[in-house]
């Protein structure tokens, strides 16, 4: 039996470029791995690839072949010519489901690492990264962890230097948001703004030098000022109440706030661990979210526990 711990991510910068012919968007995506994470346990099985899930949101997790953990196990087996893979994967779920924190992607990455160890395959890390990119845009980063710039559709990764620890709070909403729907709303808002077509007239985004400097310097105030998410207007358009959540966190003393990825989870940067605990308590009492978690990062990517 092998257990793998895997982090959630927040995008401290999510620059969204034009809509590509393949339906994806070119990104300048600064991923940041946080300690809030899932655990995936792989056990030998003679009944094919099977799944179970525990945790407060377990009912919202699909246990069929659409689950990225099951797809990861099958993809790894196929890569190694294993015709009839057998594994049971148990997901201990702490990452919000459909929350903009890449929880499904994290489970896919964890399943790759867990099955690789269980089946004693010793797949090179570069190959795991390639398989991860086939599974989804955010899966490679869940393998890598730390802080990284993601280009292309997010899968071409460059690790970034970062100093010290940053303290975060995540406000979990009731219900999720569909990532494709949020990207579509982003394109619709851009077309509606009349500044040109979302497909052809959006410049390729780049990482913000001020944000990179704040990460490298361990400067929480500087990072808070540079937080940016091009999907935020779309998430707010689909879920206007998120504006109240963002305001409740900043009113409680957060240094900065933004929607995490495609949302609806909202992320708050705090001065220190005590500040994060205070912001989380205020958010839980505010009635603007289902719950709130204080955590920290960066942390490593998917690894055997
Ligand atoms: O890669 P992944 O399966 O996680 O992407 C889910 C959906 O999010 C894509 O089908 C696409 O609609 C949208 N997406 C995008 N541009 C990206 C990443 C995702 O439009 N760079």
UniProtKB/TrEMBL annotation:
User: What Pfam families does this protein map onto?
Assistant: GHMP_kinases_C, GHMP_kinases_N
Q: Which InterPro entries match?
A: GHMP_kinase_C_dom (IPR013750), GHMP_kinase_C_sf (IPR036554), GHMP_kinase_N_dom (IPR006204), IspE (IPR004424), Ribosomal_Su5_D2-typ_SF (IPR020568), Ribsml_uS5_D2-typ_fold_subgr (IPR014721)
Entry keyword annotation includes Membrane: no
One GO biological-process annotation of the entry reads:
terpenoid biosynthetic process
Residue ranges of every copy of the GHMP kinase N-terminal domain listed in the record = 67-146
Per UniProt, what is one GO molecular function of this protein?
Answer: 4-(cytidine 5'-diphospho)-2-C-methyl-D-erythritol kinase activity
Any coiled-coil ranges, and where? Answer: none
Superkingdom of origin: Bacteria
According to UniProt, this protein's pathway is: Isoprenoid biosynthesis; isopentenyl diphosphate biosynthesis via DXP pathway; isopentenyl diphosphate from 1-deoxy-D-xylulose 5-phosphate: step 3/6
Question: What's the EC number here?
Answer: 2.7.1.148
Q: Return the broad EC class.
A: transferase
Keywords assigned: ATP-binding, Isoprene biosynthesis, Kinase, Nucleotide-binding, Transferase
Residues forming the GHMP kinase C-terminal domain are: 212-287
Which reaction equations make up its catalytic activity?
4-CDP-2-C-methyl-D-erythritol + ATP = 4-CDP-2-C-methyl-D-erythritol 2-phosphate + ADP + H(+)
Residues where ATP binds: 96-106
What does the record give as the active site? 9, 138
Q: Which family does it belong to?
A: Belongs to the GHMP kinase family. IspE subfamily.
Q: Which PANTHER family match?
A: 4-DIPHOSPHOCYTIDYL-2-C-METHYL-D-ERYTHRITOL KINASE, CHLOROPLASTIC
Summarize the protein's role. Answer: Catalyzes the phosphorylation of the position 2 hydroxy group of 4-diphosphocytidyl-2C-methyl-D-erythritol.
Protein name per the record = 4-diphosphocytidyl-2-C-methyl-D-erythritol kinase
Q: Which organism is it from?
A: Streptomyces kaniharaensis
Lineage summary: Bacteria, Bacillati, Actinomycetota, Actinomycetes, Kitasatosporales
Gene it is expressed from: ispE
